[in-house]
Write a structure and sequence with these properties.
The protein is of the alpha+beta class and 698 residues long. It is 12% helix and 29% strand.
């Protein structure tokens, strides 16, 4: 007989599955549960004794109702239950922004497991084969949103709260729980692989905002960022969401001998201490354990029992947490899950949007729902048209190209057009030296620079009121960004196929808003048109990036001393290609604005003999070390404008001057009046040529 235990607040069901054996700093199995406590609900119950009592009362009432339902031997199941589902992808443009295909695969696994269609169910231990249940629940992605609008049952919300995974993240978006099963997919599940709450614990209206399932992206489905071994996590979670406990009952952990004294309130699941390995002969509480149960942690889960099925159907027939409203015909019609597909949107994605001439682009159809034919319009591509569902085409010439798609279900059609969807860069790219002081630029982005606003709050743009070598620079309005926001500035292609060495240099200006800010600027390079990127420089606000004192207001550099300079030379011969690209990636930590200027790429060798005559003794400073005054001596190959800059150890300008000079031997007084004692670099430039020497001021 099933053993009945009164439920108290200490064992109210909140599931946590810990990723990769780590949860709460402990060394534990890959899946880790706490089925006691209500910390996921704490933002809503706030430890109010009245609300905690309401939870306990609801749990006990549901348990009594469940016992009565299970005791009734009426015929049930038969696929009578259809549940509308919506996936909310909470992402910050990382791998957690999983594909629609991965969501569809998660739904496939879920439906197979609940309808005894999983191919491994008949491989269970023979002692339990007769108990394997066809639960008879079908899960369908919604085709109508709460307002009756067309949907594919997948929403996407960009937010740094993807790394949080708590109720705060869930508050970003939730569809009514009496119409949909809400599943949130994120980069964090509050320190777990996934968690949910039982119907009784969220029965009260004040707890409705917590109702649903949170999953790590790499525990969602069996493809993409996940894997087959992790694909049953959603099945396990849904079991809890429809009022199943672990097979070992209400303790915090499996594999405890005390678990033999606990129970899951299901008659045909033998008491067990619980498993984190697949021991098919396990016998821990006086009888053979059902190790292959979906509510175990054995990693060989294959089945629900008949008793578990009855318990879940009891929850779906209960008004507790409004579970009985989900599968009613009126709700299936309202959510578009009554079995009739609704064609309502043409949509697509591609494996790349910025490519080089000659590259292949793979398009993938995302149209919904019930699409049977496709008509692609692809100007600039070879071929320019296609009726394939997911065509691959080649772009042969540089430019910006529109993509159009018309989808049909055989009766109706829907269309969409994306202007300038594909950007094709030249290959080979621009010749070297590449030099951009922004003075002739009219806007950013332009033909040389692409800006991507991944965070949605700000972007790299042209700024006309501050520059190092003129009046213009590229600014990132970071003062409006949120912590963790990422923005990117990428170059067009540059032809370095004949280079013998590569030097990438630029100027930057940045200030913190407070001393705790540690924003970071990263510089990447690519030798395959931007398909892959290699990190070459990191400038943190805690040391190199900061060039000016803290600015609580809006920072604008107004003096050369507020600019820094860096020269990146660790770019090896693998990047001597005709489609070289560079990328500036900025991650905000609450600091102030960032400015970039004088961005240069030179293909070497660049050295003293390109700037100075071959018979000169070289670039020299007299005297050196210096107390107060010193002269720079040089022997120029050609006449022209020469700039001299003194840089401190952090690359910040400590002195700057420009002067027209004749060819031959020249002498220039260095601007050392305001230079503090220390070691400096003196950089001399003429056109695209430069030379550096050292200066010590005592």
């Amino acid at each position: 007989m099933m053993k009945f235990h009164a439920f108290g607040a200490a064992i109210l069901g909140s599931l946590i599955l810990g990723p990769q054996g780590a949860a709460f700093g402990q060394s534990v199995p890959e899946h880790y549960c706490t089925t006691h406590g209500l910390h996921h609900l704490e933002p809503l119950h706030q430890n109010d004794p009245v609300r905690l009592a309401e939870i306990e009362t609801a749990e006990m009432a549901l348990e009594a109702e469940t016992q009565a339902f299970v005791a009734d031997d009426a015929e049930r199941g038969g696929n009578a239950y259809v549940l509308p589902v919506v996936f909310h992808i909470i992402h910050n443009n990382g791998p957690e922004n999983i594909s629609d295909e991965q969501v569809h695969d998660a739904m496939r696994v879920l439906n197979d497991d609940f309808n005894r269609l999983n191919p491994d169910w008949d491989n269970v231990n023979p002692a339990f084969l007769s108990l394997v249940a066809d639960v008879g629940i079908t899960f369908r992605l919604a085709q109508k949103d709460p307002n009756g609008n067309c949907t594919n049952g997948i929403t996407r919300t960009q937010s740094v709260l993807t790394y949080d995974g708590t109720q705060t993240m869930k508050n970003l978006i939730q569809w009514p729980r009496n119409k949909y099963l809400n599943v949130w997919v994120a980069a964090s599940a509050d320190g777990a692989a996934g968690y949910t709450l039982t119907p009784g614990s969220v029965a009260n209206s004040w707890a409705a905002a917590a109702d649903g399932i949170v999953l790590l992206h790499n525990y969602t489905g069996s493809i993409g960022t996940s894997s087959p071994s992790r694909s049953r996590t959603l099945t396990h979670e849904v079991g809890h969401w429809i009022n199943l406990r672990h097979t070992w009952g209400g303790t915090n952990e499996p594999a405890l001998s005390s678990n033999c004294n606990s129970d899951d309130n299901v008659s045909d699941t033998p008491n067990t201490i619980g498993w984190t390995s697949c021991n098919l002969n396990g016998n821990t509480c006086g009888s053979l354990d059902n190790v292959e149960n979906f509510m175990e942690y054995s990693y060989c889960s294959k089945m629900f029992t008949q008793g578990q099925s009855a318990r879940m159907l009891a929850a779906l027939n209960s008004s507790t947490a409004q579970r009985n409203q989900l599968w009613q015909p009126g709700n299936l019609l309202a959510t578009g899950t009554d079995g009739t597909d609704i064609l309502c949107a043409a949509d697509f994605t591609s494996n790349a949007r910025v490519v080089c001439a000659g590259d292949v682009v793979q398009f993938d159809d995302l149209s919904y729902n019930g699409v049977t034919s496709w008509d692609w319009d692809l100007p600039g591509a070879v071929p320019p048209n296609s009726n394939d569902e997911n065509p691959s085409v080649t772009y042969t010439s540089a430019g910006q190209f529109t993509v159009g798609l018309t989808a049909s279900d055989g009766n109706t059609t829907v269309s969409t057009t994306e202007n300038d969807y594909i950007i094709v860069l030249p290959a080979p790219g621009l010749p070297t030296p590449f030099s951009d002081d922004l003075e002739v630029a009219q806007s950013i982005p332009n033909t040389d620079w692409l800006a991507e606003d991944l965070g949605g709050n700000s972007s790299f743009s042209l700024y006309s009121a501050a520059g190092f070598s003129g009046t213009k620079s590229i600014r990132l309005n970071n003062i409006n960004a949120v912590e963790g926001e990422v923005d990117e500035l990428t170059s067009t292609t540059i032809d370095l196929s004949n280079a013998t060495s590569i030097s990438l240099s630029f100027r930057y200006a940045f200030a913190k808003r407070n001393s705790g800010n540690n924003d970071v600027l990263r510089v990447y390079v690519s030798n395959d048109c931007g398909t892959n990127w290699s990190l070459r420089k990191q400038l943190y606000a805690s040391n190199i990036l900061t060039t000016a004192p803290d600015h609580p207001g809006t920072f604008v550099p107004n003096d050369p001393s507020e600019w820094g300079f860096t020269d990146i030379t660790n770019i090896n011969s693998a990047f001597h290609v005709n489609n070289f690209r560079m990328k500036f990636e900025f991650t905000s930590d609450g600091g102030n604005n960032l400015y970039l200027d004088d961005i240069n790429v030179q293909a070497g060798p660049v050295g003293i003999h390109e700037l100075i005559t071959t018979d000169a003794d070289g670039l020299s400073i007299i005297p050196n070390p210096v107390l107060d005054q010193a002269d720079l001596l040089l022997d120029l190959r050609q006449a022209g404008r020469v700039s001299v800059e003194i840089l401190d150890a952090l690359g910040r300008s400590a002195g700057y001057m420009e002067q027209e000079m004749l060819a031959g031997e020249q002498r220039m007084r260095l601007p050392l009046d305001l230079v503090a004692p220390g070691m400096y670099s003196v950089v001399v430039r003429q056109n695209e040529l430069r030379q550096t020497t050292r200066l010590i001021k005592r």
